[in-house]
Amino acid sequence: MRVVTPMSPALSAGIVCFDVAGLSAGEAVERLRREHRIAASVTPYRTEHVRLGTGLWVDEADVDAAVRAVSRL
Description:
Radius of gyration: 12 Å
Order of helices and strands: EEHEEH
Strand order of the largest sheet: 1-2-4-3
Low-confidence stretches: none
Number of helices: 2
CATH class: Alpha Beta
CATH superfamily: Aspartate Aminotransferase, domain 1
Strand content: 15-25%
Mean pLDDT: 88
Number of domains: 1
Structural class: alpha+beta
CATH architecture: Alpha-Beta Complex
CATH topology: Aspartate Aminotransferase, domain 1
């Protein structure tokens, strides 16, 4: 996984964008949904990335589950 979200707190927020080696953004989003029930999206930029946001009901356990799921792709 390669994080493409800016690391600076002044430029970053509760959204994380990243790439998964060997998968297109669309493939990674589909597998996260199908295999792990994690909602992600593809960025609307020329270069597509996987995007995860914080939503209203996200807690530390949800973040840990997302990290585990991405590591299994």
